[in-house]
Amino acid sequence: MKKSLLVASSALTLVVLTGSVFGAEKLKSGPQVGEKVPGPFEPLNINGEFANQKKCQFCINGTNPVAMVFARECSEPVKKLIKELDAATVKNSDANMGSFFVFLSDDEGMEKKLQSLAKKDDLKKTVLTLDNKTGPEKYNIAKDADVTVVLYKERKVVANYAFKKGQMKDKDVDKVLADLPKILSDK
Question: Which among 60, 134, 176, 187 is placed 20 to 30 Å from 101, CA to CA?
Answer without folding.
Answer: 187
